[in-house]
Amino acid sequence: MRRGFTLAELVVVLAILAIVTAITLPRLAGVRDWIAVDTAAQE
Fold first, then answer.
1. Domain-by-domain residue ranges, the chain?
2. Euclidean distance between CA atoms 31 and 43, whole angstroms
3. Residue 10 DSSP symbol
4. DSSP string, 1-43
5. Does the predicted TM-score (pTM) go above 0.70?
6. For the chain, what is the radius of gyration of the CA atoms?
7. pLDDT digits (tens, 9 = 90+) for 1-43
8. CA–CA separation, 35 vs 14, rounded Å?
9. How many other C-beta atoms can be found within 10 angstroms of the C-beta atom of residue 2?
10. Distance between CA atoms of 23 and 15, rounded to whole angstroms?
11. What's the distance, CA 33 to chain centroid?
12. C-alpha torsion sign, points 10, 11, 17, 21
């Protein structure tokens, strides 16, 4: 049996990572905005 990954396996993994990143980044941006608002409210 050959070692390593096939092109199809790599494409699937990259697609999953892209989907997870696309879901996570907007949430992180929202948390950052919420922290800025909270900090401004405390001042």
1. 1-43
2. 19
3. H
4. ---S--HHHHHHHHHHHHHHHHHHHHHHHHHHHHHHHHHHHH-
5. no
6. 19
7. 678 899 999 999 999 999 999 999 888 877 777 787 778 787 7
8. 31
9. 5
10. 12
11. 17
12. positive
How far apart are alpha carbons 24 and 9 in whole angstroms?
Answer: 23
Q: Classify the C-alpha dihedral 22-25-31-32 as positive or negative.
A: negative
At residue 22, the 3 state secondary structure works out as helix
State how far the alpha carbon of 28 is from the alpha carbons of 12, 31, 38, in Å. Answer: 24, 5, 15
Identity of residue 6? T
Q: Which residue has the tokens 């697609």?
A: 15
Tokens of 29: 């941006």
